[in-house]
Amino acid sequence: MSEETVDERTVTALVADATAAPSLHNAQPWRFRHLRGPGVLRLYADPERVLPHGDPQNRGLHLGCGAALFNLRVSAATVGLAPDVRLLPDPSDADLLAEVRLRGTGTPDPQLAELHPAVRRRHSSRLPYRDQEIPAGVREGLYAAARAEGAQLLFPGTWHVRSVLDLVRDAEERELMDAGAREEMARWAHTDPGDAPDGIPAEAFGPRPRRATSSVRDFAVGRPMPDRPWASFEERPNIALLGTAHDDPADWLRAGQALERVLLRATADGLVASVTSQPLEWPELRWATRDPLSAMPQVQMVLRIGYGPQGAASPRRPVADVLDIV
Q1: Are 45 and 11 a contacting pair, CB within 8 Å?
Q2: Largest separation between any pair of C-alpha atoms in the chain
């Protein structure tokens, strides 16, 4: 595309797609500012949407904003843009996470544009999946999606999957005993029906697992929901680990982009997924999620991927609430 100004309608559409990204507790911790003169779109962290108990280092915030950045890149490719992206462009401003130069002169990436239909179809599914293996060819596509963003994806063996599920249970028990963690969860996971523009609505919780050890997070843990059904989940869940070589804010942003690329690739391939972040929210448990048989130094996210029903959509804030145009 030539060096022409990107109009306001296009910028709004790009940000609307960006905000369809997943984030920890659906906190949607992002803000955007479009500078019309230089044709730059800036992505900022929203300090009012941090999770001090579940995400004390803001690692999850960076992952969510990285996922939003990837969606923006996908959306840009569909309108013929090849934006230039700089991560953490200003060391003096920790909230400025990325700067996207929209007046790109390169060739749009067709592999990104191909993923665009999945942006709106992707929803976390916390429903039971089928006990079905993911074919090797489909797995290879997921591996390639992570590699394309500088990350690594692996499906650990049966022994380590059981270890991860035990860590999930331990993390939920810790959360149940931590008043601050319970209060934070109650703020973002809504057990009562309502029309909140963020957080996780009750209809997206999924059923309560029959077994104590499950691959699905119980967002109502410790809170009564008498009408919520019970269900049996898969005996052999397909658990994947997404990781990076290092563990600093730039790596978290790259991991967030890789996470969303994997999720969109999975959606396009007919899979559903949910994230299982509980053990990663406790520093003393996070190290144990790493598969000792792998070369993955830093686990950034645990995913449950498989074949099953689509999950319910979670709400999104209006674009006008997250985008400034100056």
Answers
A1: no
A2: 59
- Specify the DSSP element, H or E, that contains 251: helix 249-268
Give whole-number Cα distances, 311 to 113, 147, 193, in Å: 24, 27, 17
Tokens 């067709």 belong to which residue?
Answer: 110
% of the chain residues with pLDDT over 70 = 98
- The structure's pTM equals 0.96
Estimate the crossing angle of helix 179-188 against helix 158-177, to 10 degrees.
100
* pLDDT score recorded for residue 106: 75
Residues 203-233 pLDDT 10s? 999 999 887 677 888 898 888 898 899 999 9
Is the pLDDT score of 9 beyond 60?
Answer: yes
For 244-276, b/e burial (b = at least 16 CB within 10 A) is: beebebbbbbbbbbbbbbbbbbbbbbebbbbbb
In this prediction, residue 211 carries a pLDDT of 79
The dihedrals phi and psi of 60, each to the nearest 5 degrees, come to -65, -35
pLDDT reading at 1 higher than 50: no
- CA dist 133 and 153 (Å) reads 16
First to last CA, the chain: 23
* Other Cβ atoms closer than 10 A to 68: 29
CA-atom Rg of the chain in angstroms: 19
For the record, the structure tokens of 162 come out as: 């059981």
DSSP state, 47?
G
Cβ partners under 8 Å of residue 175, min gap 6:
181, 182, 185, 221, 222, 278
pLDDT of residue 193: 79
- Cβ burial, residue 110 (10 Å; 0-12/13-18/19+): exposed
To the nearest whole number, what is the mean pLDDT of the chain? Answer: 94
* Torsion over CA: 278, 282, 284, 287 (sign): positive
